[in-house]
Amino acid sequence: MTEKDIIEFVSGLAETIAFTAGPDGEAPEVAWGDTFIFYAPEGRVPTDGRLPYATIVTKDYDGFDTASDLNRPGVFRLNVAVGREVFERLIGHPPAAHAEHHDGTDYRVINQVIPNPLYFKQGWISILNPGEDEESVRRTRTLLSDAHERAAKRHRPRPAK
Hints:
By secondary structure, the chain is α+β, with helices and mostly antiparallel strands. It contains three helices and six strands; from the N terminus they run αββββαββα.
């Protein structure tokens, strides 16, 4: 899947905003070209501190985020907030235990579900250049749909007691 394919897919999910940072917005220059995917029933990028449920990162952030070597031509990383339970099911250990596996993880591998190199403790996974084959597309769309639903549930007001 391309970045465009992913953005088109999530844009079809209810109350989702996919915002690609650029010079015409308020995002810092280092983020330009990266896409932030929010559950946003307000119809705009949230300003309440709400985090995205997925992101597309297109380059290394020197001194901070270089493990995936995103400066390789054509490489991008889809990051998805899947939560602790799904992270453990996909990765084989809970997010809190990933620090023990960090050095043995290849964060450069293409089209595989891997822990996010920075936000694994928060239950984020990554896929570099999700594949175009039917299984990869289905997997990517399912992860994004499930993350969207998790974000929507967190945002919905709780009933008064």
